[in-house]
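tokens incoming
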């Protein structure tokens, strides 16, 4: 076999493996990092944990949720 053809094949194999590693990082690594970040910031992997169902809301709870926490303390 020609030396140039061997180098080309080796280059293609390296590119293919690099693409597979990049794909693995995107498919496994990024979601794992996002789950860890969510767990550390929210104490849960589900960002909706602790929320009440929308059909149980009323005008007062919606208004309370709209105000910043500092305003809620000042008005209480």
């Amino acid at each position: 076999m020609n030396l140039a053809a061997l180098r080309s094949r080796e280059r293609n194999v390296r590119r293919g493996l690099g693409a597979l590693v990049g794909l693995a990082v995107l498919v496994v690594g990024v979601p794992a990092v996002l789950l860890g970040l969510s767990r550390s910031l929210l104490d849960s992997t589900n960002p909706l944990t602790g929320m009440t169902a929308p059909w149980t809301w009323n005008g007062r709870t919606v208004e309370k949720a709209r105000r910043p926490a500092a305003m809620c303390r000042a008005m209480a």
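note: The chain has a mean pLDDT of 83.
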